Amino acid sequence: MATDKKQKSPTYRAICILAAAALVLIGVVMTPPEGLSVEGLRAICILLAAAVLWVTEALPVAITCLLLLPGFTYLGVMKPSEFYAAASSSSFFFILAGFGVGAALMNTNVSTVLLSFILKSAGNDSKKIIRGFILLTAAISLIVSNSTAVVAVVGLAVAVIKAIGNPTPGTSRLAKGLMLGLPFGALCGGLASPASNSLNVVLTDLLFTLTGVEVRFLQWMMIGVPLTILMTLFVSWWLPKHIDPEPLTDDQTEEFKKMFEKIPEKLEPKDWKFIIIVVTMIVLWVAGNWVKELDTTRVALLGVTLMFLPGINLMTGKDFMKNVQPLSLILLSCIMPLATAMRTSGAGQWLVDTLFAGAAGWPAFVMLLMITLVALIIHLAVPSGSSNAALSGTLMFSAAVSAGIPGATVLLILATQCGNNFLLPIEGIYLFTFGYDHYTFSDQFKAGLPITVFQYILCVALVPVLALLFGLP
């Protein structure tokens, strides 16, 4: 299991909490600058205070989010009823459904059968073994959250490591490549559609809340699928090449082959039930591009309900609850009120006018470079997808759309930069593999830097072209 993060000292935490409190106090006593309302100034100060607490982790991330309610309501930025209404977004229920799909997946043999199919062609080629795991986690992440995809596969990776002799952590390049390949592959797959990562739905709702621009399921896929394919191909080529894993010995090859004797060769009835339901959900999501009643959230909830029905029984209520991640729900319930407060108070527009003054005269390419770079920096500073999405989206959605950049372009750029961090193992998805000690911070940085550069180029060069080509909003 993953190791716990090192606790911050009480003095450090106290200083950071006082700094956040001072920012809120500034919003109370300071006269707003020209063009900014009192409510807008207070909203900005609360946002900055939250950012300080998120970056420093002086308070748990969830507690910082929950403090937004008293902060906004006691300082007159929002009424409590407005906060509660904004918190009840469709994303909340979609993420709940996503937890259900992930729980059902882990009760099937789909992952193991797919892995068996992929790895049998690898033989004793250790590079192909790493590549196979990258492709598997990317494929699974198309339909479940990135973390769930890693959880569904990490046990199989551990079994492979044991089959090659369970080497001491840090001594096997193959083990290093496997443990890095799982989160890397999942991050690639998480770009394909709104259903591929809960963050994608959050950003879609955030874009609509701040700008009124709606990007539907199929429209997302027109950009997301090419991004996923290119990122997956690059990662599955680069990581094994960079790691250069040791070749398997004859004994290791024999043990590796024995693994497949325990894996079903064919899909069982429960596996087909899962596949049929998920494929139907995807078809309905795509159809939702024309039939508004088939929105992503309602289809997901109906699909998950089917998985519980007698005769299908893909999971129990206990299975579902075990897979629910409360932190994700708390983050989501507070992000949308944050965005709403920034919009209704005028703070968002004032920030746009101030931070991106003259942006309307910038070349679109320069604007794209800035958006992508700022989002990447924010993600490194705030290693939580939902938290940095709130900051990035609030600052940049309105500015970019006002500058004439299609909302779909900005949405996919932010989804890529806010949801993907290949450089450092400092967020949730890496906790499932980093704790096995087969790779270090330095290992990941060296492997992830070329991927990050490649990702940046795709964001700037490919995403706008695809949005223009398909006439996306």
Estimated helix fraction:
over 70%
| CA radius of gyration | 23 Å
Low-confidence stretches: 1-5
Give the overall shape: globular
SSE string, helix = H, strand = E?
Answer: HHHHHHHHHHHHHHHHHHHHHHH
Detailed description of the structure:
With 473 residues, this protein is mainly alpha-helical. Among the domains are: 1-77, no CATH class; 90-323, no CATH class. It has helices spanning 10-29, 38-56, 61-66, 68-74, 80-87, 90-105, 110-120, 126-140, 146-163, 173-189, 198-211, 217-243, 250-259, 269-287, 296-308, 317-323, 326-344, 347-355, 364-381, 385-402, 407-419, 431-434, 441-469. Helix 6 crosses helix 16 (317-323) and helix 20 packs antiparallel against helix 21. The two termini are 44 Å apart. Mean pLDDT is 82; it is low at 1-5.
Explain the layout of strands and helices.
Elements: H1 10-29, H2 38-56, H3 61-66, H4 68-74, H5 80-87, H6 90-105, H7 110-120, H8 126-140, H9 146-163, H10 173-189, H11 198-211, H12 217-243, H13 250-259, H14 269-287, H15 296-308, H16 317-323, H17 326-344, H18 347-355, H19 364-381, H20 385-402, H21 407-419, H22 431-434, H23 441-469
